[in-house]
Automatic annotation (TrEMBL):
One family name in Pfam for this protein: Glyoxalase
Superkingdom: Bacteria
SUPFAM superfamilies linked to this entry: Glyoxalase/Bleomycin resistance protein/Dihydroxybiphenyl dioxygenase
Protein name: PhnB protein
Gene3D superfamilies: 2,3-Dihydroxybiphenyl 1,2-Dioxygenase, domain 1 (3.10.180.10)
InterPro entries cross-referenced by the UniProt entry: Glyas_Bleomycin-R_OHBP_Dase, Glyas_Fos-R_dOase_dom
Species annotation: Pseudokineococcus lusitanus
Sequence ranges assigned to domain Glyoxalase/fosfomycin resistance/dioxygenase in this UniProt record: 7-132
Length: 140
């Protein structure tokens, strides 16, 4: 059996909207979504909340996303999360940056860094932190 490690995010607010944005930004397939209602949570108010979603992406592999479990106290909630995305496919990473920066708080524009790449950071509109590091394409 293979072992995988995947980022697991808890976007604040509309998780389905966040998931659709991540799908567009990261060149993802249609996500597999399981709701709290599907796993037997009896509260009708939380039935449509996302218990678990898996997004397969060309950029980050598998990304997992969820609403907080119904009734979880604020002090026990994990942070929204953060991702570092890097590589030398400038066009792909720039396209992802553009989608994710819509409505985001950009902390540092994607710009030349002292270590020779283009680097930028932002917090998207769901509270998830993103760090991009775009290297120049390798030459043969």
């Amino acid at each position: 059996m293979a072992v995988e490690i995947s980022p697991y995010l808890y976007p604040r607010g509309d998780v389905r909207e966040a998931l659709e944005t991540y799908r567009r930004a990261l060149r993802g397939s249609e996500p597999e979504v399981t709701t709290y209602g599907q796993i037997g949570m009896p509260d009708p108010a939380s039935a449509d909340l996302v218990a678990n979603a898996m997004l397969r992406s060309e950029v980050v592999g598998v990304l997992m996303v969820s609403d907080y479990p119904p009734g979880m106290p604020e002090e026990q909630r994990p942070p929204a999360g953060g991702l570092a995305v890097w590589g030398d496919d400038g066009p792909m990473l720039e396209a992802a940056w553009e989608v994710l920066s819509e409505g985001a708080e950009v902390h540092q524009d994607l710009s030349p860094s002292p270590w020779g790449t283009r680097f930028g950071t932002l917090t998207d509109r769901w509270g998830v932190s993103w760090m991009f590091d775009v290297a120049a394409p390798a030459t043969a």
